[in-house]
Amino acid sequence: MHIAIAGNIGSGKTTLTTLLSKHYKWKAHYEDVENNPYLNDFYKDMQRWSFNLQVYFLNSRFRQIVEIKNSGQKYIQDRTIYEDAYIFAPNLHSMGLMSSRDFDNYKEIFTLMDDFIEGPDLLIYLRASVSTLVEQIQKRGREYENSIRLDYLTRLNERYEAWVGSYSKGKILIINVDDINFAENSDELQQIINQIDQNI
């Protein structure tokens, strides 16, 4: 069993991954933020480091999927490989922050990887408005995220909605985090768990 949690920066993916991992007693796979050698540089100079960062994430998440598949264990995964390929990389390209040459190269690498992987048994999408994202980002206080622009978050949200609308890799559960506080309200977390149980 493989559940993956998708959502924009600050939507609550890591928090929900931790809570669900504890509840189900499943292993958790987190996005490699702390040890990522490109993240700080990327937020200082997106154009210079966009390709490096995206290839790093692509490699990291492909390894996670292979590990999940080979382990035979149950996993909750914080962010998917599809978000990199269908949201973050195309967004950087459209904003002029990744060259067409690099983007084409990136797409070819992902297409090759995609032939070897399957979608999660359940995808949970955390839908959040930009104002909620900003509030959450400020609350967690990561220094390198201070320079994230509102238009960047807005563009990502638009791409998330387009991707979720056409998602065909398996079951999907959409949770509107503007209306729920699963991190602090156990009843609201239980509502999410009940919905997950119905889907798996």
Q: Would you spell out the secondary-structure blueprint of this structure?
A:
Blueprint: E1 2-7, H1 13-24, E2 27-29, H2 39-44, H3 46-71, E3 75-78, H4 81-94, H5 100-114, E4 122-127, H6 130-140, H7 150-165, E5 171-176, H8 186-199
Parallel strand pairs: 1-3, 1-4, 2-3, 4-5
Helix pairs in contact: 3-4, 3-5, 4-5, 4-7
Explain how this protein is built:
The chain has 200 residues and is α/β, with parallel strands linked by helices. It has a single domain (2-199), classed as P-loop containing nucleotide triphosphate hydrolases (Rossmann fold, 3-Layer(aba) Sandwich). Helices cover 57% and strands 12% of the residues. It is built from eight helices and five strands. Strands 2-3-1-4-5 form a five-stranded parallel sheet, with helices on both faces. The radius of gyration is 16 Å and the shape is globular. The model has no long low-confidence stretch (mean pLDDT 89).
How many structural domains in the coordinates? 1
Helix content: 55-70%
Strand content: 5-15%
Number of strands: 5
Q: Give the mean pLDDT.
A: 89
The CATH topology comes to Rossmann fold
